[in-house]
Amino acid sequence: MIDSPIQDISAYMQELGRRARAAARELARAGTAAKNHALHAIAGRLDQQRAAIIEANQRDLAAGSAQGLDAALLDRLELTQVRIDAMIEGVQQVAALPDPVGAITDLNYRPSGIQVGRMRVPLGVIGIIYESRPNVTADAAALCIKSGNAVILRGGSESFASNQAIARCIQAGLMSAKLPEDGVQTVATTDRAAVGIMVAMPEWIDLIIPRGGKGLIERISREARVPVLKHLDGICHVYIDEYADLEKAFAIALNAKTQRYGTCNTMETLLVDVAVAQAILPRLAAAYREKGVELRGCPRTRAILPEIIPATDADWDTEYLAPILSIRVVDGLDAAIEHIARHGSAHTDAIVTEDYGRARRFLREVDSSSVMVNASTRFADGFEYGLGAEIGISTDKLHARGPVGLEGLTSQKFIVLGNGDVRV
Amino acid sequence: MIDSPIQDISAYMQELGRRARAAARELARAGTAAKNHALHAIAGRLDQQRAAIIEANQRDLAAGSAQGLDAALLDRLELTQVRIDAMIEGVQQVAALPDPVGAITDLNYRPSGIQVGRMRVPLGVIGIIYESRPNVTADAAALCIKSGNAVILRGGSESFASNQAIARCIQAGLMSAKLPEDGVQTVATTDRAAVGIMVAMPEWIDLIIPRGGKGLIERISREARVPVLKHLDGICHVYIDEYADLEKAFAIALNAKTQRYGTCNTMETLLVDVAVAQAILPRLAAAYREKGVELRGCPRTRAILPEIIPATDADWDTEYLAPILSIRVVDGLDAAIEHIARHGSAHTDAIVTEDYGRARRFLREVDSSSVMVNASTRFADGFEYGLGAEIGISTDKLHARGPVGLEGLTSQKFIVLGNGDVRV
């Protein structure tokens, strides 16, 4: 790890902010062609510089090993040729997305004679604070460029060299499109004080997006003087209703838990209506057991599945991110909605039912960023939703909720077209 | 002024928050008919209780006079029969607006087979902190009820009795529609500590909307641990371009300054292209003089209008809210955009031009919540924009920008409809 010889961190961060603000004005005006040119140039440069990127990554990996980072962290940190391919493809996909900036909607004449509409505009300067995965450097930069925002990237100290190598490709790409190099800046120090300063510069940064573990996000939310697009827990539920098609219920409950264990849209608690518990639980339990999923149940679940361990109160509030599932038998839709309201994290919750009225009520009454009928919670994802790519999943309600793509990096201003109109 | 005998302000505020959260869940589910019923019942009750409201208001006015409040403040505080009429009409207008809650948009099939769309949902609990004008109690409550949110209202101590009298009508209206009375609560103490506690209860309040002077808003922004929908300065500009129709320019520049002086969408600085300054300024200056507007000019303005006083650097950054106007002669569109970027408050700015390309550039490049072509800045208003009513004007970029109506009090969640779909 390289620690740059930056003496005055505060002055350094202010300078990054000042440069970002200036670049943001240029990027906001940049045309679609120039932004796409930059993205394709970045993709080309990443391809060309594979050797340098991998060499930098090897240095990070060696330092990480020497520091005793665990295997999961080292895996997330590693850049293979396949991962560089994915990174390049990601940047190209963002280039292929429609440009959200400048889109005018709802332009209508008003009784006064003026036309009033909305124009989509960049937010300005985004600050992204992330851990380990160096591909975020390219993904986040691409989304910010396309949405006309400047960005300051602060990656983890463990991926410092990798991030710098990727950032050099990005800046070369911006320059080749005659866009401001300061549109994408990385914090060139691993000093942790930089984060505290970064989240407290509302004059230079319009939105902070933390990507990482709960500890990071909680620290940033606590210290921030800038709005934060937060993603906290993903305690997702599937509720199997009395009127569920049990084949669909089986497939969804299995997929939502076992398709991947470590993702925020993985089901952590299965709710089963008492009317179908006996019919579905033994078959599901066998399938989970085969996948190696540990089951924890409420007393009524254990009456059907006596071999599983009891769930404690803490289980209902836990995001396992692991092959563990808590199961609760509930008395109908209201009890399921109540459980989700009390224990859920407002991330993603699904009902399995063939009953129209219950599906309709679940959709309306469950207050989560994604609410689903007869689909696996694992679909809660920017790519699956057609956003093209996501910068994160917001569990906040303001500004953006759920997977956040290009649109979440923009805002809308009002535009008014008149012909000399005055107010009477 | 009544100061309630509340001993433990913190416990009291927590209890308000807890009740609001419970009511918010009920209000989020409430149907359009029930919400409209409540609003009509509130309007009826306000009409019925005119005498009690005016009596309470007289007590506030007497206490205010005794405390030496200035005439402008006492005027804002006063409730006349005409103002009560307007308040009642405002509530009825909100009842007539379409219900935003539950609206589903962009529901499309994805290649995976699922349908993905968005459903508009309430934010939850809104906290509104306001000064003097008691009509805000009814306006804000109506908008929150219609948008399915619970609200905690904290009015100024000078309007305490008036606000309580209005709040009683609102709660009676909610109850007659079988909606939770706690959907609209007022803080029943004038203790200033209540504000500090209120803005730091993210577990109970989802959004704080301050309505009042700059001092209030700055204090709240500083102390808040809850997102704040801010409205800071309105330093609005009109730029008269070289290719302006001078008749339109005259009408707009006069209206934007003189139609009302104390509003945030009033023009504070007039920018005039050097090419038309000689042609328009003498005529405009005469019209302003007739209205009693004090003019302050840059050196080039004073070369044309030698009788006016010089503008200092501070003038370009001042929201006068008074019959004062600063005038600057600029070298074309770029200089105008640069002046607005440097000195404006991103509230509302207008260009007067017949040139298509310049209008197009101004709309795109000026980063304000409202950007106008050939229209008076005074149009920047929720009613004029067709939002029906506004809870405030946001000069923030996140979540809502410009006049905020019902939609700004809501968010969108993703909904996913499947048929047993699982992710592969």
TrEMBL record, chains A, B:
Report the EC number(s), separated by commas if there are several. Answer: 1.2.1.41
The Gene Ontology CC terms held by the record are: cytoplasm
A Pfam family cross-referenced in the UniProt record is Aldedh
Q: In which pathway does it act?
A: Amino-acid biosynthesis; L-proline biosynthesis; L-glutamate 5-semialdehyde from L-glutamate: step 2/2
Q: Which UniProt keywords apply?
A: Amino-acid biosynthesis, Cytoplasm, NADP, Oxidoreductase, Proline biosynthesis
Question: Which family would the database say this protein is a member of?
Answer: Belongs to the gamma-glutamyl phosphate reductase family.
Query: What does the UniProt function comment say about this protein?
Result: Catalyzes the NADPH-dependent reduction of L-glutamate 5-phosphate into L-glutamate 5-semialdehyde and phosphate. The product spontaneously undergoes cyclization to form 1-pyrroline-5-carboxylate.
Q: What is this protein called?
A: Gamma-glutamyl phosphate reductase
To which species is this protein native? Answer: Caldichromatium japonicum
Q: What is the lineage of its organism?
A: Bacteria, Pseudomonadati, Pseudomonadota, Gammaproteobacteria, Chromatiales
Write the gene name.
proA
